[in-house]
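Good morning N.,

You mentioned wanting to compare the apo and holo forms, so I went ahead and generated the holo version with S-adenosylmethionine. This is what I fed in:
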Amino acid sequence: MIDGFGRNIHYLRFSITPNCDLHCRYCKSKDRFQKDSLSADDIFKITKAASSLGIDKVRLTGGEPLLRADIIEIISKIKTLEGIEEICLTTNGQRLFDLARDLKEAGVDRVNISLDTLDPLRYKKLTGGDLERVLKGIERARVYFETIKLNVVYLNGITDKEVADLITFCKDRDLILRFIELMPIGEALKYKDLSKDPESDLLGHDIIKTDRVDGVSTMYKTADGQNIGLIRAMSHSFCKDCDRIRITADGKLKTCLFADKEYDLLGKDEKAIMEIIKAGIGVKPLSKETVVLTKRSMDQIGG
Ligand code: SAM
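and this is what came out, ligand included:
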């Protein structure tokens, strides 16, 4: 569907649970386990309505999507939708070792794994989780998935020390490395001093900018050919090319990550959902500079 500013909206990012087994400091807003608001049928119904309006790519995120006991059922149902050409997943990797094969068989095309540090103690401090589990998850995912992106939230004064190690890690495993600028929203407002455009640090590591752009990533390259993507939603606006909508884990449509404007889809039938999505896309904001900032943290939005 084309929005009011001529952008082709074809990508749905769906947060299917508010729960997460990690506590990334800049991300997680709630520690209490909550009952999922959306059933597998709700997720299917909303995705079906969106696909009727031209959505052809879906990313399942959260919270941690692999915490849902019915994750395979959710993916299998979405896979039956003719209009959906690509199903992607964003995960912290903690449960990937056990699930990678089933995810592939159910229909996941691509996986992004979030990993901010290769230092076990730093990982524990930042996320509360076990680094070894992610590393095992990555190895298992490599067996089943051709394209795996490693998402690293770039933290000012911290990540720079690990740039070389992260590059080697990704090169050795044929992973696509991406550095994401920290977005100071919700919980991350407390850490806004850690938000930094990583470019100057990268150039110090003999990394050069290419003229390639991959979706929202500007592509860089090491001397020996490792590709690195930078996602800089704060220092560089890419709103003019925005092609996506989001559904939160409590069933709200967000047409802009940064905006507090949301549209409730919970309990609505497919036709009503289509109307709401159509209306929302029709008035999708031009840029993050034009909106009232959301109070939500990223664990509720899905990234
Ligand atoms: N649990 C899954 C995971 O860890 O990948 C999916 C949800 S998580 C919210 C999705 C992505 O958002 C992760 O890569 C995470 O690091 C990133 N993220 C969380 N808060 C962020 C923030 N304030 N700015 C930028 N990225 C953030």
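The chain has nine helices and twelve strands.

Happy to go through it together on a call whenever suits you.

Best,
F.
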